[in-house]
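ingest -> validate -> predict -> emit
validate: passed (alphabet ok, no gaps, 97 aa)
predict: started
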Amino acid sequence: MDIKVYTTPYCTWCKQLKEWLKKNKLSFQELDISENDNYRDEVIEKSGQMAVPMTDIDGKIIVGFDEKALMEATGKTEVPVKSETPVKKEATTKKKK
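emit:
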């Protein structure tokens, strides 16, 4: 399976996508469009828009971080990506009767 991920260094969704691919043990080639105009042109040509992340999996184009589309294209089951923001749990109290 040939996976190319078009990214920029400041893209949060790009980081999430790369983390998902790594957790699913999928190797990929990262192409930074801010460093190479040819990569930028490929994104526009393949997707019809200028947006990252864009993933090319054996010719199937996925724009954005779309876990469902990634699972379908790779045949992987869902591996949740942990949020970098901790979730606060509210304390619960029992009411006395």
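The CA atoms of residues 24 and 76 lie 7 Å apart.
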